[in-house]
Amino acid sequence: MPIILNSSQVQQNFGAALERTLRGEDVIIERYGRPQAAMVPYDRYQHLVEVGKEQAEEAMPRTTQRAQLHEAAATYQVGREAPAREAVSSAGAGSYRYVTRVPGICGGQPIIRGTRVPVKAIVGYHKLGLSAEEVATALPNLTLAQIHETLSYYYDHVDEIEQDIRENQLERLVERYGLQVAADGRITLAD
Question: Of 11, 84, 117, 158, which has fewest CB within 10 angstroms of its CB?
Fold first, then answer.
């Protein structure tokens, strides 16, 4: 039977709550009368993980199908907005595990799946001479696999990525939006 403690009790005496967990008891932590967290013995945790995996495997076909439909819809929308040449390359983004396009995020440019990190940002680090390991150190939320695949995507789509980089250089942005660059480097809107 789980032991229910409010968060202030746990804060005041974390050691006692931990000791109960180590003795095999489940500790439920409540805040404002609602369960917020739990401390469980490791063997119970392992059991819960296994049950979760089994449930995920049962639901996998539906989830995978839903994800594939979402990816196809995103690719279709991006492809409709882009010229015919780019539509082919955007459809290729679906064959990458970590690189995708999402309309409304980074202007529909290729990004690392699950983040807002555009491919061109990783390419920038690469062009500065940083290794994939150094980029992973600089951006700890990314894995080495994500970084390597992003560079692979870049080399498969060099023209597209380089065009995006050129269009977003400071000189082009100043020209496009009518900005002014002061002598001290500040950028302002033109009067």
Answer: 84
- Please tell me what DSSP assigns to residue 1: -
* Cα torsion angle, 106, 111, 112, 114, sign: positive
Written out in words, the top-level CATH class of the domain with range 57-180 is mainly alpha
- Report the mean per-residue pLDDT for the chain: 77
Residue linked to tokens 């500790």: 27
pLDDT per residue over 123-136, tens digit each? 999 999 999 999 99
Instruction: Indicate the domain borders of the chain.
Output: 3-40, 57-180
Per-residue HEC secondary structure of 137-172 comes to HHCCCCCHHHHHHHHHHHHHCHHHHHHHHHHCCHHH
> Are 39 and 27 a contacting pair, CB within 8 Å?
yes
Q: For residue 79, how many other CB atoms are within 10 A of its CB? A: 17
Packing angle of the helix pair 158-167, 119-127 (nearest 10 deg): 90
**pLDDT one-digit tens code per residue, 97-122:** 999 999 888 888 999 999 999 999 99
Tell me the C-alpha distance between 44 and 131, whole Å: 41
Helix (H, G, I), strand (E, B) or coil at 33: coil
DSSP code of residue 118: B
143 CB neighbour count, 10 Å cutoff: 13
Structure tokens at 33: 């009368």
pTM value is: 0.48
